[in-house]
Amino acid sequence: MTQVLDPQNAQNLESTLIDSLLAEQKVLSAVERFSQQHENTTKPVRADNYKDLIPIRKPSTGEQYSFAVDLDKCTGCKACVVACHSLNGLDKTESWRDVGEIISLDTADKQTVTSACHHCADPGCLSGCPVGAYEEIPDTGIVRHLDDQCIGCEYCSLKCPYDVPKYNKDLGIVRKCDMCHDRLAEGEAPACVQACPTGAISIKLIETDEIRQNAAKQSSIIAGAFRSDYTFPSTVYTSSRELSGTMTAADEHSLKPSHKHTPLSWMLILTQLSVGVSVADFLARLIAPEWSSVLQLPLVIAAVIFGLVGLNSSVFHLGSPGGAWRVFLGLKTSWLSREIILFGMWMPALLAYAGLTIISQNDFNLPAWLPQIKDSWIMLAGVSVVGLGIISVFCSIMVYVDTHRAFWSLGKTTLKFTGTLFLGGATTLLLSSLAFQNETPVVLWILFVTALLWKILSETISLFSAKQADWSMAKKSALIQLHSLRPTLLLRWSMMTLALIAVFLTIYSPLFSVIAILAMLTGEFLERQIYFQAVVTLKMPGNLER
Predict the structure, then answer these.
(1) Is 50 exceeded by the pLDDT of residue 157?
(2) Burial bucket for residue 344 (CB in 10 Å: 0-12, 13-18, 19+)
(3) Is the domain defined by 262-533 classed in CATH 1.20.1630.10?
(4) Quick one: which of 41, 158, 248, 268 is 20 to 30 A from 358 by CA?
């Protein structure tokens, strides 16, 4: 049945809509208000004419600058993005300000969200940087990036939960928003603030204590963003509408993989394999010195090769490796700094351990003034190698745990990294025994199979348990593996199966040991690629361009 609309009601509805639109047009933007003030006054333009854009005074003790965004005025026009790009001379693919979207499937509401660096009260980028390439200006609270100090490791990008530091391939460093601090110092508004046609963005003064109180009141600065109690962002979003509850990021269900970080994958698996081999060698010397005497040389050589290749591959992850010698600057706060320094101590210890082993097993004519190599020296070097190696791997674990990403949790990361260590030691020890000894103890086969099953079963159980859980970042990582990364996952399982079969076939021909090692390395490399690609990138909600 067709409903006939009463003409009087139709007229009232039209009148109401027109009145609403006319009233909306009377609300002038900040630019228009300033223009009228400038035209209607005969006095010089004063600083208080800018009060809609920036404060008329500088922050006092306990205060800092912050972005204030009125979401009711944000139209998503991206004038702020263009202005920021133009003023700062950014590259074509570089952007320091993003515009995303949050949506509600229940009410069909949509809101655009403009965002840049939040100049957090406890910035993760600053605490995570290994070379001190960030500083927080004491008088303003602005977090600056020091381009000339950056080595391009991109760890700040992993530490920041809002995807603020952006890597520039041409420069080999990351860069980010500095709130146009030089303009603020001269009483001028930042580019994004000045360019916004609706006055949606402004600079306000906020107390540091208020930032922490806001984090306690609301879990995140806006729906879909990471929880605020991690870095305490200073940006304040306001709206007359309800933008929480059912609102979520527009790209919440996107299963796009993250970056591969290939050099880091090789660095991690090879250093962990090296530590695993050195641990297996040292334990064999302690438990069965006579039996392991033939295996000591091939084991330490394998450990050195894995370690050297692994550490050298990490250099390819640095955009500007020339300044990497400054990693000690972040030792107090950065797990990455600790990892680099400890591995830098571990490698010389490993080389000394290998050198002592080689000299002790060969008849070298040492100069008379050199002391004879003693077994106690070798064991002391072995203790140093094992201790430093295990601590270094622990730092590798904490490098990723400290980013607060669900897929990189302490439990999952520890299982993966220590599993690689265990598998590398067990596999190399077994293959060395098969190659250089007449009989191989059954316990070595048990250790190898146990290590392989540990890796596969722990990963599989974690994957499918997360898949069955309620929606979360952990479940999203599981779905990325099962859908977007399915070919990589299947190939990884195939390589581990091939490694298992090849090790058993080594009984018939030593050539299968080569296949076993290559298959294991390939499988572990694919596992580490999944580790990086399946993690959910922490960023501002709904930025569909990244």
Answers:
(1) yes
(2) middle
(3) yes
(4) 268
